Amino acid sequence: MIEKLFTLGYVRWLSGGGLVIAGAILTVYGTN
Amino acid sequence: MAEALALSAVTGALLARREKIALLAAILAVAGVAWSYLALSAAQMSMDGAAHAAMGMSSVSWSATMAMLTFIMWAVMMVAMMLPTAAPMVLTYAAVVGRVSPAQGKRSSVAVFATAYLLVWFGFSLAATLLQWGLERAAVLSSTTMALGPFLGGGLLIAAGVYQLSPLKEFCLRNCQSPLIFIASNWRSGLEGALRMGARHGAYCVGCCWVLMLLLFVGGVMNLLWVATISLFI
After folding, report:
1. Which of residues 199-228 of B touch A (CB under 8 A)?
2. Alpha carbon of residue B93 to chain centroid
3. Mutate which of B156, B163, B165, B231 to test chain A, going by most A C-beta atoms within 10 A?
4. Burial class (CB in 10 A: 0-12, 13-18, 19+), B203
5. pTM for this prediction
6. Is the pLDDT of residue B59 over 70?
7. Chain B positions in Cβ-Cβ contact with residue A27 (cut-off 8 Å)
8. Alpha carbons B108 and B186: distance in angstroms, whole number
9. How many alpha carbons fall within 13 Å on the CB side of residue B162?
10. Is the pLDDT of residue B44 over 60?
11. What ipTM was assigned to the predicted interfaces of this complex?
């Protein structure tokens, strides 16, 4: 819903960046 | 061309209020049934998982019935998550088909459009079922929480983040975000046209969301809070 309603590009960039950071944290700290 | 011009004129109040409410209510009712099924399945799986853990069983063997139930679970989940998201497109299609092709049965056209859209998602459900089977077989997916471990889960999050920024995602999203532009540029008359348009919209939608859907393997496939979070974002 959020992605389709908010047509501004920054929603995609924010979510993309957020996912990459969350993935990095999970990979680094989750495996230690 | 004439049809496209007619479409461009349809920008105001597209559907009669009563029709709009009825169609929206039907979509939400189907999605509501799907969410109820998911809630019941999640509760059942939680009990089964606890029983398996108590018996010391680390994995569940896959039979044909199990595979079928898993596919149904994925398919119902896609209905619950994606049908409300498709509501603006379905409403717009219903409005346009009523104006551009009045002779064409509106109800049957809308039903075919929505069914074709969901059929594409059922194709994705089949792929997800096979993936789940493969992940469980490789012993990297918990059979109780149905979630990946931190390393693979983290990798999947990173992959999803990168895909969010890809040109393919941008292309698919652009075709999903504006129902009127999608319908104007992809208009086909008749029931076959409804089928093609519904399938095409489904394909764009799968193109937008397939990696985000795979994130269900990070938080747990039957973790309803996680399912709801992803569907809210999508």
Report:
1. 208, 218
2. 18
3. B165
4. middle
5. 0.85
6. no
7. 150-151, 154-155, 158
8. 19
9. 8
10. yes
11. 0.86
